[in-house]
Design brief:
two-stranded antiparallel sheet, globular, mainly beta, BH3618-like, 11 strands
Length: about 150
């Protein structure tokens, strides 16, 4: 399947690689088919590209890389539409945003994907998690000069 995108141009994706979001995403309810793309310039970054709207691509990352110890508690009813019984079978992604000071991650509403069923859903995690967790840039170690 060939899809047109404003960010990546025309790309080919296999039908079996598409992810189905039964209800879309909040604010993007009309976008139900997505392709998860790797970023060729940054191995920590992925893109969730809508197959129906060429202008919609969400930057996503794995929480393990940026938020050590990140754990989410999700009500079982949130997982039912994904046909998933155990969170260990899920891939969890966080949406990257920008708040004017820098990059942020939405820890409160992760995207959960059942890779076997090729289904995804953005869920609301229980507990006090921020919607705009600020990423602090890593400073290179200083070298002694004198």
């Amino acid at each position: 399947m060939r899809i047109s995108t404003t960010r990546f141009g025309r790309i080919d994706v296999e039908q079996d690689d598409l992810l189905h979001f039964q209800s879309g995403l909040p604010g993007l309810e009309d976008c139900r088919q997505w392709a998860l793309l790797a970023d060729s310039a940054n191995d920590a970054l992925g893109w969730l590209q809508s197959t129906t709207r060429s202008d919609v691509a969400l930057a996503v990352v794995s929480p393990r890389r940026f938020v050590p110890g990140y754990q989410i508690r999700i009500q079982r009813s949130e997982l039912t539409p994904l046909k998933m019984h155990d969170m260990r079978d899920a891939q969890v992604l966080l949406v990257v945003g920008h708040n004017g000071r820098g990059l942020t991650l939405n820890l409160k509403a992760p995207i959960v994907i059942n890779l076997q069923a090729r289904m995804g859903r953005q869920v609301i995690a229980s507990g006090d998690l921020p919607m705009q967790y600020e990423l602090v840039p890593q400073r290179p170690p200083l070298k002694k000069s004198a």
